[in-house]
Structure formats: structure tokens, C-alpha cells
Design a protein that fits this description.
Elements: H1 24-39, E1 44-46, E2 56-59, E3 72-83, E4 86-90, E5 100-104, E6 107-113, E7 119-124, H2 126-139, H3 150-172, H4 179-193
Antiparallel strand pairs: 1-2, 2-3, 3-6, 4-5, 6-7
The chain binds zinc ion.
Length: 194
């Protein structure tokens, strides 16, 4: 069962690797990512957030499992043609309870593969443009807290040290593997699929 990891887990800083192919196992992983995302009312979830170092994310702008037409899967995504600039509040399933304003291009083009291995190109605006930029950042090890304004960073500081203290506690109790064990697991997972 996949678990959503929280800041400052090292996998959230891993630059994810492209996937070699779409197969039944990957389809199972994607289904489970949607289920995990819906269970916490999320609208986007990147593979790195479930501790998998793969260039893959899922989205559903309404977080509505009864509407599969709104389920998007982006494998090996590439973003291009940013247009405009807009500020909006963001949160993240790996930093629950923390929110802050982030400036991003208003429109973006995404090229990726879908779950049947077909290439797709979408020109996006509004919420979907924001979701794919936030999730694509995850695949580069970038979190929305890195993009906060200086004032936003100051307001987030206390919450971030709370997350860090919780993580250190989990490490001390052996609930989170060491950095070396995590890195060995990345290597193994990448050997299998990247
Ligand atoms: Zn996030």
C-alpha cells in the first residue's frame, strides 16, 4: 500500500527519472495513487510523494472519484510555452495544513504519455495549469514552499520546523529508513522501471 510521505522526507527532493514503459504494474500503481489522493481530498499527487522516484503524476481538479473523465495521468511530462503570471494560494499533501501564495504562469502546455502509453498534448489554464506546474515541480524535487514570497517564507517557518521535528522523531524511532537505505531503494526502483 502506498503512503503519502511528508516534508522533509528525502524522496521529496529526489529528481525523478523517466519511466521506460507502461505496464500492468504501473497501471496498478496509478490506480492506488488516485485512491490515496481521493482519501485525503487531494487534486494532484506526484509519484515522489508516494516515495517512488518516477516522472509521473495524477490529477483530478474536482477530487471526484465518480467522475473518471476528470482523471488525468501524466507520464514523463514536459512543460512548455508558459504564458502570463498569476498568484494563488497552494497547499500540498506532503505539507498538510500549510498554505501560501505562489506566483506561476497562468497558462502552460504539457506533453506527456497517458496510461495507455499514447502521447498527449494539452494547453491548460486555470486550476489545471496550476496543478500540473505544482506536480511537475515535485518531479524535480521542488516544493511550493521554495516558491513562496519572502513574506510567505517567514510565515511558513514555524510550520516547517514542526514538520522537521516530527520527521526527526520518526527517524529516531526507526519509522523512517536512513538516507543510505532510502538511496539504495531509489537505485533498485530506478533499475526496474527507468
Ligand atoms: Zn504537492
Amino acid at each position: 500500500m502506498l503512503t503519502i510521505i511528508q516534508y522533509p522526507h528525502p524522496t521529496l527532493r529526489r529528481v525523478a527519472k523517466p519511466l521506460r514503459r507502461v505496464d500492468a504494474e504501473l497501471q496498478r500503481i496509478v490506480r492506488e495513487m488516485f485512491d490515496r489522493m481521493y482519501s485525503v481530498k487531494g487534486i494532484g499527487l506526484a509519484a515522489t510523494q508516494v516515495d517512488l522516484p518516477y516522472r509521473l503524476f495524477v490529477a483530478n481538479p474536482e477530487s471526484d472519484p465518480s467522475n473518471p473523465e476528470l482523471e488525468f495521468v501524466f507520464i514523463n511530462p514536459v512543460l512548455s510555452k508558459p504564458k502570463g503570471q498569476t498568484e494563488a494560494e497552494e497547499g500540498c499533501l506532503s505539507l498538510p495544513g500549510l498554505y501560501g501564495d505562489v506566483n506561476r504562469p497562468e497558462k502552460i502546455t504539457i506533453e506527456a504519455y497517458n496510461l495507455t502509453g499514447q502521447p498527449v498534448t494539452l494547453e491548460l489554464g486555470g486550476l489545471m495549469a496550476r496543478i500540473v506546474q505544482h506536480e511537475n515541480d515535485h518531479l524535480d524535487g521542488v516544493l511550493f514552499i521554495d516558491r513562496l514570497t519572502p513574506t510567505g517564507q517567514v510565515s511558513a517557518r514555524e510550520a516547517l520546523s514542526d514538520f522537521e521535528a516530527i520527521f526527526e522523531g520518526q527517524r529516531r524511532r526507526g519509522e523512517i529508513p536512513s538516507d543510505a537505505e532510502i538511496a539504495a531503494r531509489w537505485d533498485e526502483l530506478e533499475r526496474q522501471r527507468c
